[in-house]
Amino acid sequence: MKRRTVMTLTALVLILVAVPATFAARGHRGGHEGMGFGIFGKLHAIKSELGLTDAQVTDIHKIAESMRDENRQSRIELKKNMGAVAQVLIANPDNLTGAESLLDRQVATEQALKSNALRAASEALSVLTPEQRVKLGQMLAQRMSAE
What is the pTM of this model? Predict the structure, then answer.
């Protein structure tokens, strides 16, 4: 499979996993059915198109929640690291070595976030039937051709 296709599928799955978690975390309930991120919107907006069962939706929500919980501390760390980089440079604009060492920590944290997201995407895809994965691939292809 081409790298672009793999990256695009990963992005779609991340949307599939992250959108419900984002809305659940913010307490959004009802209201703007089908409105949201791109053509995929909230998970319930594509539930019928993919033919997801209630059990599948619940499983995907649990996967998204687990990823969000796992990433919570890393996101806090990312914010703190960027503040620390700024403080190092404010204190001494020539201290690039100190700022770069903090950025190296940032990169490691970002990689952990990406790995968690990739694992969650894999878990979410394993919840789908082969037919649903094909349909998801078609939806992605349709979206990519529209861009």
Answer: 0.62
